[in-house]
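Morning!

As promised:
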Amino acid sequence: MLRVPLYFSLVLLVVVGVYAGARELDGRAKLRVLDPPLAQASAHYVVHLKFPPERFHLTRMQDSGRLIEVRNTAVYMMDVSPAAISGIAREYWVQSIERWPGR
Amino acid sequence: MRMPMKMRVNLIERPPMLGAIPFIAVLAGWWLLPRVLDYPEYMLPPIATVLDLALESIRDGSLARQIGVSLLRLAAGFFAGIALAVPLGLAIALNRHVADIFRPVLSFLQSIAGIAWVPLAIIWFGVGVGSVVFVIANTIFFASIYNTVTGVQAIPTALHRAVRSHGGHGAGLLFNLILPGALAQILLGMRTSLAYGWRALVAAEMIAGTSGLGYMTMEAVQWQRTETVILGMIVIGALWMLLDRLVFTAIERRTVMRWGLLQR
Amino acid sequence: MNESAVLRSPHAWALSRKRARALKGALGVLLLLFLWQASVPMVGLEPYFYPAPVDVARAFVDLCAKGILPVYIADSIGRYAVGVPLGAVLGIVAGVLIGLNRTIAEALSPLLRFLFAIVEVAWIPIFVIWFGYGFTTILLALVYVVFFPVLYNTLLGVRTAPQILVNALRSLGASRWQVLTLVILPASLPGIITGLRVGAGFAFRGLVFAEIIAAKTGIGYLIFEGAQTQQTARTIVGMILMGLMWLTIDQFYLRPIERATVQRWGLTVEAEQR
């Protein structure tokens, strides 16, 4: 009977694994179109969402870099590390990412 | 037979003072701590501060007032919940098909009853007594109704048939079979629902209250009055011990002693 | 079970008992949803006061699309999945250690009883003072509320283990460890599982409360945030999810484990059958 919790946990792990894998691929695709491409240093990015961001998303952004401005569905950030922008790229509610010169 | 949640070890052979030793140890440690360690006072106020606060709030009646207010709300919510749940539960449980239809829904609602309703209650009743009593009543209602329905359904079919074959039906069936048969489960359910209801009281007062023990304890966090927090905790603990003991003995008297050992 | 003696219907189309009950249960859910939706125009209040099922459904889709829900669910489950087993393990260890010595058990029991009477809800304020808001406070509350029921039941089990078996094993030269694992623990297991079930239930409610007070993510926080921002449909999504999560935990973890221990050790303690 302990099979039930075990199998269920396994199924959950598999689902989470697949989900994580899909996120990784999606994130890499979004970063591939960056021009110039992703480098070692921190840079400035505009994150385009599919909708106007809520507190939840802005908090997420604030943990990744300097939040400068929010224009409708675009979030302008500066000094974002490569690791941080990779993390943001993985989120499925992010439509696209591009660079901007900053302010 | 369900294992009792509280342990009742008979202390007949040992002196009762044995149980007091850990308390004395804790109090001694508390008294000693500020003298050996250096830490900010708001983390753990010295035992004297808490005692002073306790005495003062007893003397000026403020503690009694908080306790009274909380207990009143608990009573109101408890009786409102039971008064609605037991008749409704019995009505649902009388027909086996109706009971089967509603039991999963009731089980589901019972799992979210209480604290999860506090934000909704605030929208409906605002911050204050209304929300607190509503949340308590909500908790007790769903816990009791589920217990009533399962209690009636657990009455052995053989007994049902026996009573019916002797010509019992309607009101006679209700009072001679259903109520006594389900009563044990209902009363036992009352103890658990009271446990949830008590937690709901404290929690609701902390979030949506303007007075009472929960409110008093949570509000003190804002002002870093840790001595009030500690006093609140001790009073909450002592009160629950009293309440549970009262309810438990009341139930035991009516069930175990009236009908012998509970049969499951 | 009482129903086994009932005659099965001879008709070919008759559903099995279990399936019939499942259908009736589903009917109940649908009935509730229908009544709820129908009552909305009757109550005639704004959606933030009395949202309709369609509003709730829409809010659910919205929360998923915006990536909020997966994170909140994951955070809640994470806290629960760490706190409950931790509390259980600590409870078992403490129960065994205390239970092995009768004097210690009897001395500590009033203090333990008092501490548990201070419900976990009442510990949150001081945890906030000590550890601030966030994961530690929530975790501690969960560990606390699972610890005590498991401790009591372990203690009870250890103290009431069949002495005959203990003596028999001892006379065969078994070590203390062997006596523990072969007799005492198995004998206390059903009780421990019951304690775990009680603790898990309290812990679930406690989690929601702790998240309302001390968290920025999670289902409890969702319930709170929805009401705060006048998005009551989100609150209801949170409440329904809460019920579904408990259903999952109970059906896939708690009950199977309970059934497994009772069946495996063949003890006469019957699990509640529902």
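The mean pLDDT of chain C is 86.

Hope this helps with the figure draft.
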